[in-house]
Structures are given as structure tokens and as C-alpha cells.
Design brief:
Blueprint lengths: L1 E7 L2 E5 L13 H4 L5 E2 L12 H9 L4 E2 L3 H9 L5 E4 L4 H5 L4 E4 L3 H4 L2 E6 L7 H12 L1
Parallel strand pairs: 3-4
Antiparallel strand pairs: 1-7, 2-5, 2-6
Amino acid sequence: MKALCLANLPIGIVLPPGHPLPKHAQIALKDCAGYPFLRSSAHPVISATLSAEFTAFWDDMEPAATCNSTPLLKRLIMAGKGISCFSKIAFVEELKRGELLWRPFALPALNALQVGIVVPTQRALPHVTQNFVGRMRAA
């Protein structure tokens, strides 16, 4: 097995331009409570093992919407319907174009998250995996 690449891809808050939260360098969970929150799943995106504080926030929150379609969540966030939590990799192009903003949570455990691609040494990578590795290196 070998790790092709590792990337620091913490979970943070995705917001539309003009939203008041991005004035902070990092976002506290309590600061998110006053805004409509859009969830990608009913289940926490971070386990309690990694951050009990995040899991409690997720479980206690009443979402404005729960939707498992990332493209639809992007459109809802851009339309100002709410904020959500994602890694930057899901929004690379929108962030580059300034259509969305991203800020890390004020939680050290979440800011240390890394994503990697681990494959058997003898395996040739499919095109989709090569594309994903390229995106991770660019993020």
C-alpha cells in the first residue's frame, strides 16, 4: 500500500458572499446557531470520537433543510438560503470564482483533518481516481 497524496482538508463553514460570519478568521459553532443551516445528511459528518462538541452541535440543530445533493446545496447557499459545513474540495471552483466563501471552524481537531488516497502499489489508477488526486493536490 502507498499513500499517493495527503491533503489538509478540514471541515468548515460555506457561506454566500456578504454573509456576516466571514469577518471572523475562524467560526465558532455557537456563531452558526443564529443562521439557517443546510445539512447534507441527518447523520453528523464528523464522529463524536473526533469532536464531541461538533456532534452535539449537529444533533441539537434544527436544520432549515437536509439534502444529499451537493449541487443543490451549492445553489441554496449561493441564493442566501443558509450556510453549511463542507471541506473546501467540494467547492473548489465556486471558491476560486468568489461565488462562495469558506471559513474553518474554531475547533483544532477539525482543522487537523487530512484526506488521503491509499492504493495497493501494483494497482493502476482509474481516470476518476487520477482526477480526484489532482484536485486534492490543487486544494
